[in-house]
Write the structure tokens for this entry.
Amino acid sequence: MTLEELQELSDKKLKINDTELDIEALKTPQLHNEFLKHYNKFNLLLTKTESELKIIKLHKWEYYTGKADPAVYQTKPFNLKILKQDVDKYIEADEDYIKIKQKVDYLKTICDYLDKTIKQISNRGFLIKDAIEWRKFTSGAI
């Protein structure tokens, strides 16, 4: 599931039908559970991808400092001598590193979005209660 699909899902599922506030209140725990499952799935995927990023960073560090296996240099030669302080610049500009870093950033964005969505669902009860109180007030029941 992509970020865009999650956004469409939340747009659809989080709308409050103001004519059936009681049913909407009862939906809140189910919505919370549904989005929490998505959050957990993407959070675990983020953790796994962050580990992959650390591993690739180590491999790239070995490659750019000349400490990698000689077979690596036969398939992908690197004949430059770079300073230790410049190794991070080369790693951060490496295509393989960039791809995984972008994936990590994307997953962080999804997790952040889901976290905020879950907080919004948690506040849903207050919104429904306020809507009910407003209806009571406008109808003269209070």
Remarks:
- The chain has five helices and no strands.
- The mean pLDDT is 92.
